[in-house]
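ok trying this again, last paste got cut off
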Amino acid sequence: KQWYQRRVAITAGAVGTGIICSRGLSVAVVSGASMVPAINKTSNRSLVLVDVCTPVTNIRKNDIVLSHDPEECEGFIVKRVTAMAGQFVQLDPDEEPGTYVAQYSYEGKLSVPTGCCWVEGENRSTSHAHDSRDFGPIPLGLVKGRALFRIFPWPKVLLNDR
């Protein structure tokens, strides 16, 4: 009986995922501590619903986005946009700079180039090694979509007020 219940749940989940993906939405797994507390508050793994139909020109500062990883061609990252093209990133002088920041910052500031955005993890102490502080601004062409909703655990709306 338990095996049958698991099979029904897996089938229902697969059908639900198929319906979601066919409507311009995708499900992404977020693992690790870099997005604590925005996404992974109590768990090392969360599922988020991502709008993959929104044009990247509609991405704004403070949105949480799913992006192709600029350092690993097969990977994806989920981070918060902290600056858009033409905006300056103010660096924390008490924080150890990442590879990109150490090389390209001037007097504690960086300018985000046209067609790019600056992304950072929420938990700055753990995400330091894998966000824009390390690899620089990401081209908007790498952004796959905007996270809308945390599905698991404990549903939560992730959209910022526009």
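PB: full thing came through this time. Residues 95 and 125 are 9 Å apart (CA to CA).
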